[in-house]
Specification:
Shape: elongated
Structural class: alpha/beta
CATH architecture of the largest domain: 3-Layer(aba) Sandwich
Distance between the termini: 35 Å
Number of strands: 16
Largest sheet: 8 strands, mixed
Bound molecules: zinc ion
Strand order of the largest sheet: 1-2-4-3-5-16-6-15
Strand content: 15-25%
Helix content: 25-40%
CATH superfamily of the largest domain: Zn peptidases
Number of helices: 9
Order of helices and strands: HHEEEHEHHEEEEEHEEEHEEHEEH
CATH topology of the largest domain: Aminopeptidase
Radius of gyration: 25 Å
Length: 443
């Protein structure tokens, strides 16, 4: 991959250097600026708008965000960043450190960068110029806002303390990304005391943010089931195991586990079968000897953690599967792969930051809700290791911002950009002036 002006980068492979200049503490005045409409110089807004158009028109899939990575690096260098960290195993990640030179905490702001394999409708503006690839999860917006925040802070950091780490993370939509960044240990080495992110929320108005305490998004798990039995002619099903019928029974059994075999309040879970296959070469008059099923399980807890009766969700699933196997006298093999853990908003950090943020913003702009979702998000990988907060960003205004993420119709109102910039800047300012030494995390 090409990097822009490598001479001005602090090149680090595994080991890094952080310059610390201890300066005078800044006593922050009441946040008047956050209540203004366009409090930043015009050049900051044009950074955000240009970056958004660039990322949206040239979307790149996970782990190959090379052009996006180059653009971000070059822009950060132009803004005056000198600490940009290269990670040998994450070629498209950009992690940049802004040191205010004043004593204070180290906070992190994270965005994603990757797009998805979707054809964008031609009438969109801006519109993807890459066939079959589109930013329809808002990662272009997140990255543009984060880049703008970096420029705004580099332009004037007098309201900030400590260090602000900008984490442009690749591969949220595919494997790698957040888990790889956590695994390489860079955020621990940098001493990140709190990490923040916002994600577009279709249907939520521009100028509104939502946040919930505790576990806000489920962990994802994936399963494969193989049924093996006696095949037969389709005209004579009693001569064999009739595996398609067993598979149908199994789908019913598995789908009813969350509401009937688990405590729905204390062990909420969704188990969905998404694939059933009898093999590619089956004739229509042959009952096969093998059927495979696959799907996903979403839950806010580890499937191996015991419930109040001592049984884990995995135990309950296995018991149900064995029951079907015994009833129909077939062989059933169950494989479970744990993927993203649940996304946890850190309660102490929540209590410290959210009231300050609410009073700095327009009344009602930041709503505390108790909404949770069974969707999952790889920001979850950070949450067991760093105190984190994950916000929903309103994108709807007029006819824009109504359609769901991952759909070809997904779009956002352009006013999301300045609003998201002001929000992230305000959040960073509050966090960088807070005493984060009182925040703890148990790993
Ligand atoms: Zn997505
Ligand atoms: Zn996303």
């Amino acid at each position: 991959m090409k990097y822009g002006n490598k001479r001005s980068l602090l090149q680090i492979s595994g080991i890094f250097i952080v310059f610390t200049i201890v300066g005078a503490n800044v006593v922050l005045a009441v946040d008047a600026v956050a209540k203004q409409h366009r409090p930043f110089p015009d050049k900051i807004y044009s950074v955000v708008e240009k970056a958004y158009r660039q990322f949206h028109e040239y979307p790149e899939l996970g782990n190959v965000e090379f052009q996006t990575c180059d653009y971000i690096q070059e822009s950060l260098i132009q803004a005056g960043f000198t600490q940009i960290i290269e990670l040998p195993n994450l070629l498209t990640a950009v992690i940049a450190v802004w040191d205010t030179g004043r004593e204070g905490p180290t906070i992190g702001l994270r965005s994603e960068m990757d797009a998805r394999p979707t054809q964008e409708p031609a009438h969109h503006d801006p519109c993807s110029k890459i066939n079959g690839v589109m930013h329809n999860c808002g990662h272009d917006i997140h990255a543009a806002i984060l880049l703008g925040t970096a420029h705004a802070i580099a332009n004037d950091d007098s309201a900030f303390r400590g260090k602000i780490v900008f984490v442009f993370q690749p591969a949220e939509e595919v494997r790698g990304g957040a888990d790889d960044i956590v695994a390489c240990g860079i955020l621990k080495e940098l001493g990140i005391q709190a990490l923040f992110a916002q994600h577009v929320a279709p249907g939520t108005p521009v100028g509104r943010w939502n946040i919930s305490p505790g576990a806000v998004m489920a962990g994802s798990n994936y399963f494969n089931i193989t049924l093996k039995g006696q095949g037969s002619h389709a005209a004579d099903p009693s001569a064999g195991s009739d595996l398609p019928l067993v598979a149908a029974r199994l789908v019913e059994t598995l789908s009813s586990i969350p509401a009937r075999s688990l405590d729905i309040l204390n062990q909420p879970m969704v188990m969905s079968v998404t694939q059933i296959s009898t093999g590619e070469h089956s004739a229509l008059n042959v009952i096969p000897t093998q059927v495979t099923l696959g799907g996903t399980i979403r839950a806010f807890y580890d499937l191996d953690s015991p419930g109040e009766n001592g049984k884990s969700a995995r135990d309950v699933i296995m018991q149900a599967i064995k029951g079907v196997a015994a009833t129909y006298d077939v062989e059933i093999d169950f494989e479970l792969r744990k993927a993203t853990p649940p996304t946890q908003n850190h309660n102490e950090l929540f209590d410290l930051i959210i009231p300050q943020l609410q009073s700095a913003m327009a009344p009602g702009a930041l709503k505390v809700t108790h909404g949770r979702g069974m969707f999952s998000e790889d920001f979850a990988y950070y949450t067991p290791h760093h105190p984190c907060l994950y916000f929903s960003l309103g994108v709807m205004k007029g006819e824009k911002g109504k359609n769901g993420v991952h759909t070809p119709e997904f779009d956002v109102h352009p006013d999301t950009l300045p609003q998201g910039l002001l929000f992230l800047w305000t959040l960073a300012k509050i966090a960088s002036n807070s005493d984060l030494s009182v925040i703890h995390i148990t790993e």
